[in-house]
Amino acid sequence: MHSHYYELTMTLKEADFVEFIADFVANIAGDGLEIGRDHIIVRSENDLAPIQEAVVTLVGSLGGAIDIEYKIEEKENQDWIASYQNSIEPIEAGRFYIYPSWYEAKEGKINIKIDPALAFGSGHHATTFSCLDVIGTRVQRGQRVLDVGCGSGILGLAATKLGAKVELCDTDPISVDSCEQNFALNSAEYEELWEGSANQAKGEYDVVIANIIADVLKFIVHDLTRATQKDGILILSGILDKKETQVTEVYKGLELLERKQKDEWITLVYKKLN
């Protein structure tokens, strides 16, 4: 064990975005994550500058809508990794059981192994939880599924384990690498995985999943609806309740089949009519 570790503290002017940024960091960082009301702390024995750079790039891609202050410090190591792992609990979401490798799989559930499972036990997992619940009831064997903004790949993994043919994409290269690693960890195979978004998708899909944020969902509405085949399903998540009407307004050409809310986060399930 190293005698020192690094700590990256990100303080957000708007607390509404803490869960979104924390979810992004959880998908790309192989280290401990602590979430507060208006801040996120990442701890690692490795240099955290690449994590900060990835967040800066993400914020820039959103037009600078999120104001974040960054601070990296070097601290004395007190075996925080073991303490963090001991605090993690697996999660059951619908038909799925999500667990880190130091736990056993669960009989009777569809098991998905995700390491280092940074999102476990923290409040920012609400959108993923709801999406997994929907996937368990909506995705069927043999369907063609697209996961847009795949992050760790957990949603695509869930669809794959149900027998779907899954393609995934993310604009962040670190997320693409993380997704590839998690598919390997689960001995699962995807059809395609690329760095980019839905505008690069080829053809149409039975199910399109986009767990991003409201502003991005509005921006790529045409790409997502184009990728969804007639009578296909579009699952949208990462929507704060106060921004729900902004999203439903731009997707009003689709039929709303289902609305799920967990904490302040909304997941919407649409059917494309034509």
UniProtKB/TrEMBL annotation:
<dbReference type="InterPro" id="IPR004498">
    <property type="entry name" value="Ribosomal_PrmA_MeTrfase"/>
</dbReference>
<dbReference type="GO" id="GO:0005840">
    <property type="term" value="C:ribosome"/>
</dbReference>
<comment type="function">
    <text>Methylates ribosomal protein L11.</text>
</comment>
<dbReference type="GO" id="GO:0032259">
    <property type="term" value="P:methylation"/>
</dbReference>
<comment type="similarity">
    <text>Belongs to the methyltransferase superfamily. PrmA family.</text>
</comment>
<dbReference type="InterPro" id="IPR029063">
    <property type="entry name" value="SAM-dependent_MTases_sf"/>
</dbReference>
<dbReference type="Pfam" id="PF06325">
    <property type="entry name" value="PrmA"/>
</dbReference>
<feature type="binding site">
    <location>
        <position position="149"/>
    </location>
    <ligand>
        <name>S-adenosyl-L-methionine</name>
    </ligand>
</feature>
<feature type="binding site">
    <location>
        <position position="211"/>
    </location>
    <ligand>
        <name>S-adenosyl-L-methionine</name>
    </ligand>
</feature>
<dbReference type="GO" id="GO:0008276">
    <property type="term" value="F:protein methyltransferase activity"/>
</dbReference>
<feature type="binding site">
    <location>
        <position position="170"/>
    </location>
    <ligand>
        <name>S-adenosyl-L-methionine</name>
    </ligand>
</feature>
<protein>
    <recommendedName>
        <fullName>Ribosomal protein L11 methyltransferase</fullName>
        <ecNumber>2.1.1.-</ecNumber>
    </recommendedName>
</protein>
<dbReference type="GO" id="GO:0005737">
    <property type="term" value="C:cytoplasm"/>
</dbReference>
<keyword id="KW-0687">Ribonucleoprotein</keyword>
<keyword id="KW-0689">Ribosomal protein</keyword>
<keyword id="KW-0949">S-adenosyl-L-methionine</keyword>
<keyword id="KW-0963">Cytoplasm</keyword>
<feature type="binding site">
    <location>
        <position position="128"/>
    </location>
    <ligand>
        <name>S-adenosyl-L-methionine</name>
    </ligand>
</feature>
<keyword id="KW-0489">Methyltransferase</keyword>
<keyword id="KW-0808">Transferase</keyword>
<dbReference type="InterPro" id="IPR050078">
    <property type="entry name" value="Ribosomal_L11_MeTrfase_PrmA"/>
</dbReference>
